[in-house]
Amino acid sequence: MLKNLLSPLRCIMVLIAVFLIAEINPNHLYAQTANTDVTGVILDAKGGPIPGVTIKNQTTTKIAISDGNGRYKIAAAKGETLVYSFIGYTSKTVVAGDQTQVNVTLAEEPNKTLNDVVVIGYGTQKRSDVTGSVVSVPKARLSQLPVTNILQSIEGAVAGVNVTTTLSVPGSQPSALIRGQNSITAGTGPYVVVDGVPLSKTGGSLNDINPNDIASVEILKDASATAIYGTNGSNGVILITTKRGTTGKPVIRYSGYAGIDNLANILEPRTGPEYAQKYADFLKQTGQVQQRPVPNIGELPAYNAGTTTDWVKEATQQGTIQDHNVSISGGTPEVKYFISGDYLDQKGVIKGYNFTRIGLRSNLDVNVTSFLTVGTSLFLTSNNDDGGRANLLFATAMSPYGQEYNANGTYKIFPMEPEQLYTNPLLGLTTTRLSRTTNLNGNGYAEIKFPGALSGLKFRLNAGYTYLPKREGSYIGRLANDLNGTARSFNASTNSYTLENILTYSKDIKKHHFDITALYSSQERKYNETTAGAVGFINDELGLDNIGAGATQTSGSYRDRYGLNSQMARLFYSYDSRYLLTLTARRDGSSVFGANTTKYGLFPSAAVGWNITNESFMKNVTLINNLKLRLSYGKTGNEAVDVYRTITTEGSVRYPFNGISTIGVVPNNLGNSSLLWETTKTANIGLDFGILNNRISGTVEAYQNKTSGLLLRRSLPIITGYSNVFENIGKTTNKGLEVTLNTQNFTGKDFRWETMIVFATNKNKITDLYGDGKDDLGNRWFLGKPIRVVYDYQMTGIWQTGEDVSKQDPTARPGSLKFADLNGDGKITADDRTILGQIDPKWTGGLTNTFHYKNINLSVFIQTAQGMTKNNQDLTYGDETGRRNTPAEIGYWTPENMSQTRPALSYNNTLGYGYASDASYTRIKDVTLSYVFSQNILDKLHLGSLTVYASGRNLHTFTNWVGWDPENNYSSRGSGDWVNNYPITRTFVLGLNVSLR
Fold first, then answer.
1. CATH 2.60.40.1120 occupies which residues in the chain?
2. Please, is 510 exposed, middle or buried when counting C-beta atoms within 10 Å of its C-beta (0-12, 13-18, 19+)?
3. How far apart are CA 172 and CA 412, in angstroms?
4. Neighbours of 653 (CB within 10 A)
5. How far apart are CA 419 and CA 446, in angstroms?
6. The TonB-dependent receptor plug domain covers which part of the protein (predicted)?
7. 221-263: per-residue pLDDT in tens?
């Protein structure tokens, strides 16, 4: 299986074996004799080939290695003994007979996971030796899901990692939060490292990494694991390792899928008759006389004809997605390579939304000499999401009697003439829009292994360079209701480099084992941008291609620089694989901090581990196969503020003076030259266990984070000329519990059933703000409460006809929202507001059931997030004096229906109530059915492996939320980003994975 090929420790074993072969016969990869050659293929329990297996003839000591398709060839006479061995599998012995073909199936070792090698940052370690909180994303999530971004594979599948898909815009990236939120206004996203070189802070994103190229993903969560990344570690670290070549003949693989996208849930607008009835009810509730059946004259022709327009249908389309990936890997003992190319094309469910990604990768490892290895990791990614876009918000607002087209076939600008509050939701399709990014990334390394008395000492130099050009542009012309024509062009580039000097030393002295790592690194990023714009074009013919033709010209430019210098030391010690100790210290100096500080900070950590099952008193305890206790404590930092925040700057502005346009300056940023990073102190306790021959295994962890010196954006009186300033003030705490449980429920010859359960709780709270013991009401920050809360009035129902409102809410009338008088003063005021709930979930979970029957595999993953409250933008649809359509599902109060949940159409939400709602949900996240073809069929097809599958994502959501989706951040009109309102989609794909011999 590919997953076995990519384990770093296994690759090392393969490499050692290859060197042995070279010593025996340097001219041939496979050991041969003049006598009988035994050939065959080596498979795992699922029927997949196992590359890199060592086959040793015990009689002649000759050795061979299986190739990328599990095939091998070795000389063996009758009666000679062949031993098949590979790390993580139980060795098998076969006595050669008269047959010349011997196919072998290897079974996985019961304690295979304990021997797995995991990436821990600046190195690897056996899982049984890990003392920090390091979680590997299940390999099945990486290889068997058709996703465009690796975070989509992680969502709900790793305890303590909250991945949220707030919108499904093609090419967008989900947000990730590891172990909750420590900071209030500084960045909270995890630090991402790819092949040992940072991706974060280079301008790139995980969208630039093709999921098909990823071999493993590790997530570092506690201070012992993250402190090695110092000032970037407080929000957790995601380590990504891409695939690399192995010894053997070239293996060509193709992975591809194609499918369809649809809106997972549609918040249907009212039909024509329902819309007309709503208008009549609105006039009645507001005491107006109805003069026509619809609000606008322009709607009458369609109303009289009985024809309607389904605007949501007009603004949406059948979404499609396809991805094709081809890779070739192989090599000799001296040179190993992995080359891949990928093409992704996605057409969104809303018209005009498209995303195309083309990627190329080349990973190379060369053993120059017995002591020198060099290699590269190069990739080029081009992202394109050009195209004007339809407006779903306006599509839901349109009258079903509105006119979509003019007589000449162009889009009617105001479908509900003379109403001009809403324009045609399809006008965006007439605009020119460019949005393109490229990531050219080159990483290289050189590693020297010292011989003799210095055996165990290695020096590695990592060098990384990233170039990211970006281009955006737009032209809005007459067809889109811009009678002057407006053009805008934006060009930017980011140049980043990383240099790392890493010295490692490994030594065993009897039962004592030492691993020492030292690091000196430097990072720099330079960013430049230029903008140009113009208004007033004679016509729309040239538009964006001739900005100089505009009557009024604007331009701008900006650049900045970021730098980080770091030193790190780490000691790992174990005694008899029972007692484990890890000590780490990192010193960082960051350019983002103030001139009045040292700019340097020290981030230490310590962790201990106890492999209880390795104790002598556990030898006769057959029930328990693995039991390890881990404790850690350490300090990490967060520098997640923009550059130049420590400097007071001013911006330019044009203003009239004596009838002439003059350039002046206005306050822009109030600097703080004493600004430093946030500091988070983390304690972690974990228990790893395995019982019943590891049929039940898992991890339980508890943690507590205490963050001080918050990078807090403090509000200032506007009379100062500045609205806010960053200061190191305030404190937060953050604690939680995480459980991961893996069970083998049934293991038979043909049928197997496995389950993985993840569960995590998280609770954060603000313990201090400005040192005065007071809340910050304006920012909704409250001492002793979670960082993100909903603070509003407590709705208790709807005022009904005949109820006396005079004493409590004199402005109310039947159909108005009824609120609780919490302070008991007999009236509703701002003092009656209270905390209604927290925005982040109180707990999250995931349940994966995997069933195997012969060559058929079925995986069902269910995700849940519970205990969060959000203001519901879908319920705050303003009727806007009866001028817009509203969702049929939401409804409204009338004297007849006496609703207790929805107000009257005449109600004006003068208090700004946000309709706080329970946003908890449980989702059937993905289901995948696959079939792995047997070796007999593959032999007939002359293929190495073949798997076909069907997969569905976001199949169904169980929730009390009323709206598009509880995970969505669906914006209302005027919020600034309403054009990108794009609900969650449901996806179905068919896929194929095949390798050639």
1. 36-109
2. exposed
3. 31
4. 11
5. 68
6. 127-237
7. 998 889 888 888 888 999 999 999 888 888 899 999 999 999 9
Cα dihedral across residues 904, 906, 911, 914: positive or negative: positive
CA separation, residue 933 to residues 141, 143, 243, 752, 857 (Å): 20, 17, 24, 17, 11
Question: Which token pair is 979?
Answer: 């054009």
Strand partners, 862: 847, 924
The span from the CA of 784 to the CA of 757, in Å, is 31
Domain 112-245 grouped into CATH 2.170.130.10: yes
CA distance 178 to 188: 9
The top-level CATH class assigned to 36-109 is mainly beta
Position 977 scores a pLDDT of 57
Cβ 372 vs Cβ 447: under 8 Å: yes
Query: pLDDT of 588-620, one tens digit each?
Result: 999 988 888 888 999 999 999 999 999 999 988
Residue 954 identity: N
Q: Decide if 706 contacts 755 (C-beta within 8 A).
A: no
148, two tokens? 């465009």
3-state SS track over 321-338: EEEEEEEEEEECCCEEEE
Residue 545's CB is within 10 A of a number of other CB atoms, namely 11
Virtual CA dihedral for 935, 936, 941, 947, nearest 10 degrees? -40
The four Cα atoms 344, 192, 669, 184 give a dihedral, to 10 degrees, of: 110
The Cα–Cα gap between 31 and 18 comes to 11
Give me the phi and psi of 940, to 5 degrees please.
Answer: -70, -35
309 Rama sector, left if φ>0, alpha if ψ -120 to 50, beta otherwise? beta
Going by C-alpha positions, the residue among 782, 793, 788 that lies closest to residue 915 is 793
**Ranges 544-553, 648-657, 659-668, 730-739, most confident:** 730-739
CA–CA separation, 824 and 212 (whole Å): 61
Domain ranges in the chain with CATH number 2.170.130.10? 112-245
* Measured CA distances, 108 to 89, 140, 848 (Å): 4, 16, 21
The pLDDT assigned to 799 comes to: 92
Return the H-helix or E-strand segment holding 272: helix 272-285
Specify the DSSP class assigned to residue 783: B
What mean pLDDT value characterizes the chain? Answer: 88
Q: What 8-state DSSP symbol labels residue 946?
A: E
- Written as one string, the DSSP assignment of 86-150 is -TTB--EEEE--S-SB--EEPPBPTTHHHH-EEE-SSSEEEGGG--S-EEEPPHHHHHS---SST
